[in-house]
Design a protein that fits this description.
By secondary structure, this protein is mostly helical. It has a domain of 60 residues: Serine Threonine Protein Phosphatase 5, Tetratricopeptide repeat. The protein has 13 helices and no strands. The longest helix has 16 residues. The radius of gyration is 24 Å and the shape is elongated.
Length: 230
């Protein structure tokens, strides 16, 4: 305060605020270093003998999976440059590209694509990264993948396309994007379900109203109900 002696920051306060004076955090594993985005310690841990594809005990993630999960882009680039396995999957069949799609880590998705990630790779339910981005409503992530040339009509084990997942979860931005990319809201799965069928049956038509004419909604709702009662 003005006029008050010694009102400025004390020497100890300045020392605490100085990043150089802070105690360095030492991570216990390669996965911790990647989650924190610490490339230097990542490099040091690998130099000490840690495997670049080491799987953690709890989540069964590799360092590359954690980089995609946490958005540690610099670590992800370092891992890819040093030969991390981009195809290795978790117990659920997720590659790093699946995890980046779930988390909406756009920059990581772009880096993985540039390094040859297979965007048609399927997890244990047959879902590709495209399905997962649509499920979680990450429209920009979805757009990055679509622009890379991946087929938007790819199906999972139930013959659900990304458009089904976008409609089912009410992801309007993703749904609009997929329709713009040529996906049809009239596609049905092996049970005869429409992409918006379950939402239409429940009366939740707000997702589809901007995209289709009311007559089509009414017609397709009847079709969906008929399939469910057959």
């Amino acid at each position: 305060m003005p006029g008050v002696a010694n009102s400025g920051p004390s020497t100890s306060s300045r020392e605490t605020a100085n990043p150089c004076s802070r105690k360095k955090v030492h991570f216990g594993s390669i996965h911790d270093a990647v989650r924190a985005g610490d490339v230097k310690q990542l490099s040091e841990i690998v130099e000490r003998g840690a495997s670049i594809n080491e799987v953690d005990v709890l989540h069964k993630f590799t360092p590359l999976h954690w980089a995609a999960h946490s958005g540690s882009l610099e670590c992800l680039h370092w891992l890819l440059w040093h030969g991390a396995d981009i195809t290795q999957v978790t117990t659920r069949g997720w590659a790093a590209s699946h995890i980046a799609a779930i988390r909406g880590q756009d920059a990581c998705v772009q880096a993985l694509i540039m390094n040859g990630a297979n965007l048609t790779a399927q997890d244990d339910r047959g879902c590709t990264p495209l399905h997962l981005a649509a499920t979680h409503g990450h429209s920009f992530t979805l757009q990055i993948m679509l622009r890379s040339g991946v087929d938007p009509s790819v199906t999972d084990k139930r013959e659900w396309r990304p458009v089904h997942y976008a409609a089912f979860h009410g992801r309007l931005g993703c749904l609009q994007l997929l329709v713009k990319w040529g996906c049809s809201i009239e596609d049905v799965d092996y049970n005869g379900n429409l992409p918006g069928g379950s939402h239409l049956l429940l009366g939740i038509t707000a997702t589809l109203r901007p995209l289709v004419k009311p007559k089509i909604i009414k017609k397709r709702t009847k079709t969906f109900i008929r399939h469910q009662t057959d």
